[in-house]
Fold this protein.
Amino acid sequence: MIDSEWKIEAKALTRAQPTVAGAAAVGAAAAGVPQPVQVGRSPLPAVSVVYSGRLADLATLAPSVETGALERELTVRRMERDVDELERLRKLDEERARKERERQQAAEAERQRRLRELEQQTAPQQAPSPPSAEPSPVPVDGAATIDPEAAAAAAAEAEAEAAEPVPGSVPRAQAQPRKKRPANSWQPFQISPYQ
């Protein structure tokens, strides 16, 4: 009978210091070469390989591998990595949302500035003329005299105001009248439409 357990352990990870002096000291004395630096992450747990069975069947023995501790450690590391990734994504989303808010505020400020400029440009053009101090004389007999030049100027001004679009308003398309369908004498429960 044979019962053998082998443990496979992780070697401690070491990394040489990346210095220019160490790279230049290749072939120099051992004192000039930098010492290895321990890596901050802990090594992975050991894996056990167990051979158990009759000694006569040694060549055909199938090992059983116990990886429970290794699987737990890998799961924990994966969860830690996922948490770090989620935190990184959350920070990116917050930054993106902040930039979007700033962009919208800048766009709103630009829109308000343009509206003020438009109001300032249209304000002098639409200033009403002050009413004259003396009223126009009205004839007593009811016959009114009309100045043809003043009437033509007033009509042209009214047409210009009607043709000028109002800022901020969208012209609406006029709805087309629908044609009526011709009356059909066939009814749905009729045997044939030709009767």
